[in-house]
Amino acid sequence: MKRKIFKSALTFLCAAAIAGTAVSVLHTEPPAVAAAAPAHLNFDVYRWGNIVSDADFYVAVDGNDKNDGLFASPFASIERARDAVRAMDKTGKSGITVAIMPGNYRVSGLVFTKEDSGTQDCPVTYCNYGGGEVVINGGVVLEPGDFVPVSDEAVLARLDKTAREQIVCVDLKRYGLTGRDWGGINAIGQYHTASQYEENKTGPIYCELFYNGQAMSLARYPDEGWLYTGKVLEQGEGKERAGDRLYRNPDWDTAKNPKGDTYKISGGLAKRMASWQTLEDVWMFGFFMYDWADASTPIGAFDAKSRTLQNRYVSLFGAKEGAPYYFFNVLEELDHEGEFYLDRASGMLYLYRGTGFEFAQIDLSLTTDNIVRVDGANHLTFSGLTFQGTRGDALVFKGDDNRVENCLIQNVAGWGLRMEGCRNTAQGNEITQTGKGSIFFDGGDKETLTPSENTAIYNLIHHWSRIYQTYQPAVSLNGVGAVCKNNEMHDSPHEAIQYGGNNHLIEYNRIYDVCLLSDDAGAVYSGRHWDWYGTVIRYNSIYNLGSGEHKPCGIYMDDALSGQTIYGNLLVNVPGIALHMGGGRDIVLKNNIVINSGTPISYDERAREGAKEADSPWTEHFGEGGDVWEWLLASPWQNDAWQKAFPAYARFSSDFNDTDSPNFVPNAAFSDVSLNLIFDDEESLGKIAESVYVFSTVEKNGIYALTQMNDLFTAPGSGHYTLKSGAAVPAGFEAIPFDLIGRFPSDSAE
Q1: Would residue 473 count as lying in a domain?
Q2: Are 104 and 191 in the same domain?
Q3: Cα–Cα distance for residue pair 150/500, rounded to 1 Å
Q4: By the 8 A CB rule, do 564 and 588 touch?
Q5: Domain-embedded: residue 484
Q6: Burial of 162 by CB count in 10 Å (0-12 exposed, 13-18 middle, 19+ buried)?
Q7: Domain match, 153 and 134 both
Q8: Are 553 and 665 members of one domain?
Q9: What are the backbone angles phi and psi of residue 524, rounded to the nearest 5°?
Q10: pLDDT, tens digit (0-9, with 9 covering 90-100), for 353-405
Q11: Are residues 202 and 64 part of one domain?
Q12: Which residues have C-beta within 8 Å of that of residue 693, sequence separation ≥ 6?
């Protein structure tokens, strides 16, 4: 039996920030990390140290918007500084700078339009002045001194007796807030079905509470981990039937108020739920069918006597026994440090106070707007600032040549940073505690394959996808020609990098402790397109994925994604499939090192199967008229730019009368699987479909036992996988430039 690393999720969450965690099973360390950042990245001062002595305008918390904005008489608001910049004549200037003094600036949404643009010769920069943190906050800071012990007898009667003394409360109305500010609870999860119901609980994510920078949980049961659904008594009226990939509900698109799923529950759980005073606005969150499909629902019906529980919102893909879920927004379950509850009718907020409560930083997110929204402005830079406290996406850009650098983006319910346009850059930022993903790019011209040149570089991204727990990557590349390089990403329930489109470059990234709650997922993921040729994934270090029984993949090219180059990557301790090719063609899978994986390489023939077999679950995608064919035909694959860039398209055949031709698109043809080094107790390359050997090249791969690592690498026990001089590997294998991987590459990376 293979030796694996199966840490508990709790261990991952506690230890993942330490990149050098020992891998005890292999008696080795993760790949080595350089000790310090190069001086040009300015990491040590990204939050406090930009001393600006010659800014055009200054902003201070004790300023006045009637001032002239100079150092001795600063503005009070960033909006006023923006307006002053808008009124300036930029002719002949080399740049305009707004320096913001340390402090907390509460905003409900900063908007920059075309009139606020800089130019190529005169960019506009908003930066911190230095000496302290500049927080641009969409929420409100709650003072610990404003919290008092609970005195309402009705509330006390609902609280756990052992927890009462630790629970304190504050009336949010004392901060001038109303129900319109804190709002209600709407459905969360990538695959919820709330839009099918008349009450339509879709909309902004609920406001959140952060204690010393850490997100608190709406009072939940269980406090950690999961409950599991019991026997399914009745399937609801979902889009699919559980486990039947060929079934589709023909009425789903027009369905209104479809019946939910009904489960059996244990006697103990039934007794506990019966003790809750009300089930109104009590929600369930879980993975009711697949571990890549998260969803939430209010309780639909509960019967303590018969021990039955029904989801109000049906599971999209059907219901199954043993699915993980938990309840949240239950006042009676406010019994654990790190939890809070908001009575949305009265505005009373309750929390279980933690250690050092009187000195705690307590933040409540409020605005549903973006903290910063750039709508058509170009040549703007935001540097050295902290953004936090929105129930939406933090920073959203539509424009060109904009930069977000050396900033801290944290404690937001949506995305950290979304940038649409060309030549936009996210550099040297720390992005953490986002409810969805972290960096999203879209841009470039698909018809001409003109690259966007959008770039994410030197960013530290961790603990994202807190609320929506699937398909919310650290970095999402879309369009044409975006770059993701030299970033560090760790701690997420699902994927790290997701992409769609053409000609992206993903290189020199360090990715670990991701896909913690999924099996059918990959640290780097894309799929189901024959028109997304051209992306290169090279020189990335990916290690220590999954947790518990979850066995995700490393690099996952799903559902016949084709035309990709995957070269020179290091994958260590991937409990699922390290390199997963889902039946695509024209793939270069070469020169990678795979150590201690569940399956080193899997290359299947699902597209061929779907094209040839009418009763295959893959037929809807790859059979005649399937969606993947439709997307190919809708793309510009036959124009001159595409034919020149991707010569493989010239040989594409859609002849279903000649399915054994290598040119028939669903066949896994013209791929190159070679010169990969596999270290595995079973000494196996993996699972390669027979048709891959027929239509593609699979050769010169080096397969070794784990015990042979010391013979080939300089110091694998210390996380160094540089080959020794004269190491016996297949001729043609090229050394991987490990000194260039990660946020802190050596000077030779420049």
Answers
A1: no
A2: no
A3: 51
A4: yes
A5: no
A6: exposed
A7: no
A8: yes
A9: -120, 125
A10: 988 999 999 999 999 999 999 999 999 999 999 999 999 999 999 999 999 99
A11: no
A12: none
| 78/387 Cα distance (integer angstroms) | 13
For residue 642, the enclosing domain spans: 1-29+518-750
Could you read off the pLDDT of 677-709 as tens digits, one per residue? 999 988 899 999 999 999 999 999 999 999 999
Q: What angle do CA 205, 500, 582 make, to 5 degrees?
A: 110
pLDDT single digits (tens) 563-597: 999 999 999 999 999 999 999 999 999 999 999 99
CA 117 vs. chain centroid, Å, equals 30
pLDDT at site 196: 96
Instruction: Identify whether 38 is part of a domain.
Output: no
Q: Would you say 661 and 653 are in contact if contact means Cβ atoms under 8 Å apart?
A: yes
Identify the bridge partners of residue 408 per DSSP, sorted by sequence position.
Answer: 386, 430
| 112 and 150, same domain (yes or no) | no
Alpha helices by DSSP H, 575-636: 606-612, 619-622, 627-634
**In the chain, how many domains are there?**
3
**Cross-strand pairs, 713:** 723
Q: What percent of the chain has pLDDT over 70?
A: 92
d(CA 80, CA 64): 9
pLDDT of residue 200: 86
Q: State residue 130's pLDDT score.
A: 81
Judge if 273 and 238 occupy the same domain. Answer: yes
For residue 253, give the nearest of 187, 193, 299 by alpha carbon: 193
- Please tell me the predicted confidence (pLDDT) of residue 10: 27
Copy the structure tokens of residue 737: 């430039």
Contacts of 67 (CB under 8 A, 6+ apart): 73, 74, 75, 76
249 plus 395 within the same structural domain? no
